[in-house]
Amino acid sequence: MDQSHRELLVSSPPPTNGVSVAPSGSSGFPRTESHISSSSAIIIEAEACRQRYKRLHPKDITDDEKDYKTLVHTLQLERLSAIFKTKFGSDGKCKVGPCGLKEEQARVYFDVYGKNEITPPKRENIWIKLLRQTFLGIFNILLWSCVIAEVALIVVFAKPSGSAESSPDVSVNGTAVGADQASSKKEEEEADYVTPIILSAVIVMAALLQWYSELKAESQMEAMQKLQAASKVPTVRVNSRGERVELEVDPVNLVPGDIIFLQAGDRIPADVRILYCSDGMEVDNSALTGESVPEPRNTRTEPVTCPPPEARNLAFFGTTVLKGNATCIIHATGDATFLGKIAQGIKSSRVKSTLEIQIEHFVHIIAVVAICVGLLSLVANLVSPVKRAPPEILQNSAAALFAQVPEGLLPTVTISLMIASDQMAARNVIVRKIDAVETLGCVSVFCSDKTGTLTTGEMAVQDLVVPTFSGGSVSSLEVHNRDKESGNFKKSPGLDGISVCGILNNAADIKVDKGEERWTGSPTEVAILRACSEVAGGAESSKQVRNKPANNKTFEIPFNSENKWMLTIHGSDKSYFAILKGAPERVLKFTKIGQDSASMAKIEQQLQDLMSQGRRVLCIARREVSGSDIPAGNKFEGTTSTDCNFPMKDFEFVGLYGIEDPPKKGVDDAVIMAQRAGVKVVMVTGDHQDTARAIAGRINILGSSWDEGANEGEQLQGAAEFSVITGVMLDTRIPRGDNFTDDEPEENVKWWTKAVQHARVFARVSPIHKQVIVQAYQKYGYNGIGDIVAMTGDGVNDAPALKQAEVGVAMGQRGTEVAKDAADIVLHDDNFPSVVKGIEQGRLSSENLQKSIMYTLCSKVPQVAPTFGELFGIPQALTVAQVLLIDIGTDIWTAIAYAVQPAESKLMERTPRHPRQEKMVNSKVLLYSYGYIGQFQMIFCWLMFFLAVPGVWDLYITGKKPMDYTDEDRTTDTQGMTVYYWTLVLGQIAAAISTTTKLQSVLGFGTSPYCLPNNTLNLMFVGEVVLGLAAIYVGPIQSAFKTGWLPTKAVLLPIVAFVGITLIDEIRKMIGRQCDESEKAARAPSKRRP
Q: Is 449 one of the annotated active-site residues of the chain?
């Protein structure tokens, strides 16, 4: 039968064996009973299947277990066969005879376990997302409320207008006045239409910008699917006649109990237990663990104490076979796989960004201020000497409320962060979620994966150790390290022996194509070949060594997990030599010095020294094979030391290779830079604790004098339990639910409180552990407030933690698609120092955003002042449309220009601003904007209102009401409003210059001048002046915003406001610097650090 028809398809009905169904008659009843019996049998078998499958898991496992737990690696093969009701071959390889599941069983299992694929999350429709970003969100709701209120006012004012137009005037003069008033009122109403239209456009455009920047939605699950095997999998099953059937099955149709065959290069299609594998089989688990070292596999049953991720008889969905071949039984598919458990962590919702927290806080403040101002305006209008109709009172109160709402804040924040993200892209930091820019500047804990993030992710030989002999014993060991400048080993006569042996006894290969070197082989072999080639003089020199006739390889015993060494024999005719390379404890026993206690003591001491530095050490030895040692016919044979037909003794000890995944260049300095900035750098890795401790010490994560925690009572020495925390220690500290709650056991709370304070390294951790570690810092860090956490990583195992952190940072070059899609930020160059530079840019963006808000709020006081001025009979000084012209026409663009403002001080020497403790919009910001600059702006606006247009004072003194104005009075009133508007424009330019720095002088009063380095902001100043003059002299703009022509004197006089505000703030900064220096001098004696 064709294989494609035999493959399991869920849509295929049970076979009828060719028997036709009778259309009628009594024969139909037996068939119905048979059908019912068959269905019942399937249901019973399905339930039995579920019960048997439970035996593969610990008894205490729950249905919603987050971690990956199974006992399949601890069970004997006979037990597995019984649980899955599958058949294993007598040859152990399942290559002959009936093997695997029965086809009918496979169908039942498919119904029970479903498709072998990870369940994708529900995705939000992109158009619904756009609508949500446009109409929802606390700030958007506030703005839309203003729009609705404006429209309602227009509808209310339409009726009085109509009745006024229908009322006849009693005189010619009165008719003229009434017509003028109607015309004026019509202009006001037309101006009122501008407000809701522009405000609506601003909201929609800001939402479109945010929607567009995040349109490439998170696709973690799609990336997960890419890890599935694309090709069909060789599988064996048993048909209804008990015969062996070999199939090519689609990965999605595989079920637990299936027996499959894998070979080098195959992507593993499900979680499997290895029944048979060739010697030296290796898998690449880096996509899951993030560790670059190939992991060997065997068939031995593991003890119960062995965690599943460390079991060598298991292979996992999404990983790759590097070397060898295997016969496996599938024990988990789809969501039940190790990868599926990771996927469950990714499905959890992302934590709220610090910017969202800040905006919510700001909106609450603005809402309270706006409502209070609106109510006060209502009271002011009710008791005002100028009697108004209820609709007019409502309009004035609404205008006062609208004036307090910073309409331009939404696009300002969005565009500013987009500009900042472009600047970060220039530093190789790609921002996927724009509000992560601000959050990055607030990070207080940086949890970093080791492999590929802090280290290169590639194995490299760091030490070449060669012996010096005296009288047949090792007198000393000479350690050669890489040159600090070039990073390579220098050619040295003393290294010729270890170099040649490393080139010849090596399974890796090198090809040079158009000047480009391509290294192939296992990472360890490539590392040794690279180092030895450097010593030999380069890739071409190493090829020449291999091509010499005297070095011709005639025999090889490949490395395997049993021998733990690799042997090659080189030469021809009667001249041969053998090279042995492998684990030191295995190789040294074959050497002449193996029984020399003095020599072995020196070597053991060197081994301990290398391993304490996190090195993986291999030993290499050499011996001549000549005379009677050469087997008959020059035919060398053997697979182990006991069955070789040549001597496996008296090897000459050649040297040691110290191999590691080395730290990236500049990481140690970047860690110091982060620590100086008050950011705690924590290593979180799946690697061994000794390796992690060694690397952490070398890159200043452990033992740094700048580490805040290390200087508080020498915490690492005082809390040895927490210096390096392992995954085993975390197993009993995982929260009961998806995250930590206030109901956690007190013992766990105390433990985590100490852990987040003292620990700098977490080693041997699982993917779930990484997520829990981030959650712990967010719950118990920062003295109980919770740290703002950034997490870096590149593997699938990092994805849940990347999404859990406030800022997830993935590696762009070696990072998996899952990690990139789970992250907010991607490092294009995979360079840790780049993300530290990103923190600096994030802090600058946060500070500039705060300055932008300070500037925006300054104008709110003079904008609302005219409403209360009317309480004292002062003529109208500003319209709602003019307020909008200032907010949208000029302020918004100036506020956006702050995004490119350079830093005024050394940002990376200050502790990060914690958004829950120090809000972006705090009491100092409000006092500066409302109680300081805003007050001076208001004073100058009123001064210019009366001084630049003398007729305004006459209107105030005479107490004329607007309905009694003559044409000249209306012209004066319009000029007065124009002067007020123009003065406020110049006052805002002064505010912008003042807010560019907090303490540093712009003009150089008493310190080096900051000047005006932001050319974009300078250009905005020019734009504000041009637009302000256009509002004064361009007819259409005059009509739209009810401004009027001004004489030259009235235009020049308000410059006094600009000069006055700028000088006043320079004096404030001078006093502030003096106070700051006094405080620093007072604190100097108590400093811990120089």
A: yes
